[in-house]
Amino acid sequence: MKDMATQITWYGQSSFKIVTPRGNVLMIDPWLTNPKNPNGKNDLENLKHVDFILLTHGHADHVGNAVEIAKQTGAKLVTNLDLSTAMISVLGFPENQATAETNGHIGGTISLLNGEVKVTIVPAQHGSFIQKDERSTPVFGGPATGLVAEIKNGPTIYHTGDTDLFSDMKLIAEYHRIDLMLCCIGDHFTMGPKGAAHAVELVNPGTVVPMHYATFPVLTGTPEVFQRELKTRGTNAKLLVMQIGETISL
Asked: Is residue 1 part of a domain?
């Protein structure tokens, strides 16, 4: 069977679907029903095939619809061991879909789908907790992380998760040639456009897609300011501003 292009869909905030060249499906931080996605409920209901759910950290706008998707599709959880444990105990993520086979920790690489996808868990500067609901006591969700997904016959994708700029991002570029960087720019809870542009300079991706902005009023970073900051830094990365619900091919 001939491999196809890798397909990437943005659902708003930090939520993406990746369809690999062999048709396998990864969801990253799957908050499909976020307030900026008018089709969120239908998008969630129409997910019939998901192989893996990748989570960067435990905040509700990143965990999102992960448990629903797991129960609906049988998808397995890929994240750090601490967050996986909290997802099971607090939110009821199916235990047999969150095992040591697909859970790792910072610095570790997890091989999936007979090596078609390799996910490396990398640091991020942020927090992480799990809550069953707004009145429940928060439970520590392990360290916040980013994720690097290397897809065979496809791109290498770096999802920053929620993070500030930190100098060791340059080490990611030393170990991985990043084709696509999914980069938070919203400010207030993460780096804003200026810090994000510096992060792009350190990582040196082929293309950068801004995310985690405009979902709430406090997330004031914009793609326009991000573009200006990228130009100021003279980066080589191509800026690609996706629309919610849009799918691109790589």
From this structure: no
CB contact burial 68-93 (16+ within 10 A = b; e otherwise): ebbeebebbbbbbebbbbbbbebbeb
Rounded to 10 deg, the angle between the 66-73 and 81-91 helix axes is: 80
Say if CB 167 and CB 201 are below 8 A apart.
no
**Per-residue pLDDT tens digits for 114-173:** 999 999 999 999 999 999 998 999 999 999 999 999 999 999 999 999 999 999 999 999
Residue 23 lies in a domain: yes
**Domain holding 216: CATH number?**
3.60.15.10
Q: Indicate the pTM of the whole model.
A: 0.98
Q: How far apart are CA 4 and CA 20, in angstroms?
A: 8
- Say which residue the tokens 């400010």 belong to: 187
Domain that holds residue 115: 7-249
Look at the chain and report how many structural domains it folds into. 1
